[in-house]
Amino acid sequence: MTAAMNVVMKTSVPTDIELVRRLCDGDKEAFAELYRRRHGNVYRFALYMTGRPEMADDVAQETFMALINNRAAFDETKGAVKPFLLGVARNQVLRRLRQDRPMVPVDEHHEEIDRGVAVRGHLSSSMRKEKIDAVRKAVLSLPEHYREVVILCELQEMSYAETAHIMNCAVGTVRSRLHRARAILTEKLQTARDESSSADVVKSKRCFA
After folding, report:
1. How far apart are CA 146 and CA 143, in angstroms?
2. CB crowding 46-85: b at 16 or more within 10 Å, else e
3. Which of 17, 128, 151, 199 has its Cα between 20 and 30 A from that of 38?
4. How far, in Å, CA of 41 to CA of 63, rounded?
5. Residue-range domain boundaries for the chain
6. What is the rounded CA–CA span in Å between residue 178 and residue 153?
C-alpha cells in the first residue's frame, strides 16, 4: 500500500465533530458510528461511578438520546464531543445516585469494569502494581466528588481543563481533589494489601497447625 493511499484512508475517517454535524443533518449512520466509538467511554464512566451495570447501561442510552433530542446543546466551539457526552452522563449519574442509594456491590461484574481500569496516567507506580480488583473497589468506595475526578482524569484521560468543564468547577479544584483522591486511594490500597498479607499468614498457620 502506497503512502498516498495511507493518507487517503486516514483522512477518510470522520472526526467526532464531523459525525455530530452529520447527525444534525439526519444521518443515521453517523449516529451509529458515534455510538460505537463513544459508548464505551460513557458506559464505563457510569459503571465506575455507580457500580451497577444496569444503571450504567441506562445512563449511556439516555446520554446518546439527549444528543439526538437536543442536538443544539453541543457547541463545538466549547470543546470536544467526548467531554460533552461525559458531562451529560455525569449529570445523569449524580441524579440517579441521589435517588437510588445505597449502591449495589459489583463483585460479580469484574469484566465490565476491568475493561477500562488500567488506571493510567499519574497514579503512583506502586498503585499500578495493585490488582485490578483492589483498585476497582477502592475507586468505587471514594466519595462522589473524588471518585468522578479520578475516573475522568485517570481512566478517561481527560485533561484538567476538560474535567473542570465537565464538573463545572475551577481547574484548581480538579487538581486539589485529584491530589486528595490519590492519597485516599493509596491508603485504601495499602490497607487492602496489609489485610491480604495478614489473611495469608493466618492461612499458613492453619496449614501447619
Report:
1. 6
2. bbbbbbbbebbeebbebbbebbeeeeeebeeeebebbbbb
3. 128
4. 11
5. 11-116, 117-209
6. 8
C-alpha distance from residue 55 to each of 31, 32, 81, 150, 208 (Å): 22, 21, 22, 20, 47
Question: The C-alpha cell of 194 is what?
Answer: 496489609
What fold is seen in the domain 11-116?
Rna Polymerase Sigma Factor; Chain: A (1.10.1740)
Q: What is the pLDDT of residues 113-158, one digit of tens each?
A: 444 444 444 455 444 544 667 788 889 999 999 999 999 999 999 9
Contact 181, 187 (CB under 8 A): no
Count H helices and E strands in the chain, helices first: 11, 0
CA dist 50 and 151 (Å) reads 12
Same fold, 11-116 and 117-209: no
For the entire predicted model, the pTM comes to 0.74
Q: Taking the mean position of all CA atoms in its chain, how far away is CA 103?
A: 17
Q: Where are the beta strands (DSSP E) in the chain?
A: none
Question: What's the CA dihedral at 110, 196, 186, 130 to 10 degrees?
Answer: -50
Domain 117-209 annotated CATH 3.30.420.140: no
Cell numbers 460505537 correspond to 36
